[in-house]
Structures are given as structure tokens and as C-alpha cells.
Design brief:
The complex is a heterodimer of chains A (318) and B (95). By secondary structure, chain A is mostly helical. Helices cover 68% and strands 2% of the residues of chain A. Chain A has 13 helices and two strands; from the N terminus they run ααααααααααββααα. A two-stranded antiparallel ribbon of chain A has the order 1-2. The relative contact order of chain A is 0.11. The longest helix of chain B is centred in the middle third of the chain and has 12 residues. Chain B has a three-stranded antiparallel sheet, covered by helices on one side. Chain B is 18% helix and 22% strand. Chain B has one domain: Roll (Ubiquitin-like (UB roll)), CATH 3.10.20. The chains are: A mainly alpha (318), B alpha+beta (95). At the A-B interface, helix 4, helix 7 and helix 13 of A face strand 2 and helix 1 of B.
Amino acid sequence: MELDINKLESDFQARIDAGENIEPKNWMPEKYRKTHIRQISQHGHSEIVGMLPEGNWITRAPNLRRKVGLLAKVQDEAGHGLYLYSAAETLGISRDELFHQLHTGKAKYSSIFNYPTLSWADIGAIGWLVDGAAIINQVMLTRTSYGPYARAMVRICKEESFHQRQGYEMMLTLCNGTPAQKAMAQDALNRFWWPSLMMFGPRDEESPHTEQAMQWKIKLKTNDELRQQFVDIAVPQAEILGLTIPDPDLKWNEERGHYDFGPIDWDEFWQVVKGNGRCNKERLGARVKAWDEGEWVRDAAMAYSEKKDAKKEAKKAS
Amino acid sequence: MTKKEWPIWEVFIRSKNGLEHRHAGSLHAADAEMALENARDVYTRRQEGVSLWVVESKHIVATNPAENGEIFEPAADKAYRHPTFYVLPEELKHM
């Protein structure tokens, strides 16, 4: 049977337009596969690298309640990374190759994790803002066209709201505390606000993949739409905390029914993406170290498994 | 280095007794015992289940979507397999 590529592509688009999901063994354009590998792996890497800035504070949590909460959250991030890696692997890339791409800098992860966590309040700000921004993106992705990715998102979204709530509660506690504690919370907001807005990616007019991604229902909303949604949700949350969002241009626009906000420093964004953020080297260094130093454990576990199998076979034979 | 990647396992969870095991996702593990331990940590952190199955992915045999027509379409024109195909009087309730 001769396969007509145009027919395959139009059938594929028709299935997507009809709201069908694409599953691993279905035919898909090579670019759809590659775009998904890039996006899902980048998402997975963000979960894994995202453990580092928070893990930094587990041993210094102010009390046991905070400590078990943060520990559980960081463990969730590990789980989320694993769900996503599994989804990426259904597209024909191996786990080792995924790690290789991260470790060599070929694959990216969210720039937000290249900012340092300087105080305990940063952990609150990350839960509130960074997880809040991630939730907005991930809720959209529960309806993405690739089945394994969408299912991973459903699972992740169910678990993610605890992350945001624990972060917001931390901020609330600090804001109801001493003036010094409230100042800590404000300082964390000051440093994490703009990087959180950058999490949604470049402006629509500078995001060349958006059109194709929308056509294939990889994305259902543009970067700017998601960013606006985030701002509209976060502003009243900051008001409840009694904190000031560090943007003099931020104000309600009655006509649009949205908050207007000031310009984002895209130079900073691209600098961090290119590897020149405060913590890029440290984060990647920590991942490579963990991978290299874990090699003997992975090999030993495999050798033990093979030895057990060989023993079983020998027993059967005798 | 000639190391081998840990194989992939599929994970199935029974959420409570009385319900079937359902596919939850996959993971890597060196052997079955480790696959169960990892499945517990990755997929049941919030009381999602009372029983776990793991099976190495390579052992699963699946239909090929390219053959979906011949496999699944024959069922499409067999309305007589469904209860609504049979016309019964209004006054007959509960059948």
C-alpha cells in the first residue's frame, strides 16, 4: 500500500479538529512528534530541576509542619518529572537520551529555577506564584491533543493544588507575623514576581511555534493569554496578603476587564535561557553530579536483577 | 560504559476492592520487586489504591491502529446486539 503523506497529514488534522486524542501508536507528523518530545521533556526537566531550589530549604524549615509539607511537595515534583518522562518515552526517545539532553544543555528547563532561594519566604513565594503559574499552564494542557501528555497533566493537576496552597499559607503566616517577617514576604514577592510572568514564555509575536502548536492543539491558549490569566488571579491574592506587587504600571482596566501590567524585561529572560542566570551552572552541575554518582547504583541493580534471572533459569534447567 | 537502561514497566492500580485494576502509567525498574516499590512511591502517594500490578512493557501485546478498520469496524453495523434495536410496547416497563 502506498502511503500518501498529504492524505495522512490531512486525516491527522481532521482527527485533531474533531477533538480526538492522538495515542502513541497512531501515525503523526514527524514535527508533531519532535515538538512533543521537546515540550514534554522540557516540562519533565523543569519538575526535576525544580526540586533543587526547594530541597535547599527542607533541613531549615521553621517547624515540623512546614517540613513534612515541603518534603511531600518536593517528592511530588519528582513524581511529576517521572510521569512526564514516561509520556515523552512513548514518542520513541529513551530515558537515558532524555537525561543526556538535559545534562548537555540541549534540552531546556524552566528559567525560573535558575533564580536562587535566598530566604524561607522564597519557598512560600515559589509555591504561591511559580506553582500558581504552572497550574494555569497545566490545566490548559489537560486538554492537549497527545493522550499520554494529557493524562500526565490530569494526574499532576490533581496533586498540584496542595503545592500552591502550602506556599500561600506560608506567605499568609509571614504576612501576619512581625514586621520583619512581612518584609521577608514582600522581598520574596519582589524577586519572584517578574520571573513568574516570564514562565509563560515569550510574547505571542515573538513565539514562532505558537500558530502550529495551536493548530495541533498542543496549546489551547497563547503565552500572553495565559500570562494575563495569571496576573488577574494573582493580584487579588496579593491584596489578601497585604503585599504590593512590584509593578508601578499595574492597574485594573475596566474596558478590557483585565489588569494592565508593565513591560517585562525580556533581555533578562533570554540571558537566563541562554545559561547566564544566577544559578544555571549550579543547578545543572547538581543534576550531572547526581546522575554520574548514581551510575554504580543503577548498574549494580541491573547486574543483581540479571544474576537473579540467571539463577532462576539454572534452577529450571536442573 | 556499556550499562543497560532499566526496563520499562506498566503500572496498574486497583483503587478499591470491587473495582478492576486500571492502567496508571509506567516507570523504570531493574526488576519486578523494585518496580512494585517504585510504583508505590510514584503512583500511590495519596491512597490511590489497595493493590498494584506491574508488568514489563515488552510483554504487552497490542493491536495496531493501522488495522483498526478490520478489527473494530465490523461491530459498527450490528445494532441488533443492543437492547434498543428491539421494538417493544410503551406499556411494558422495566425491560
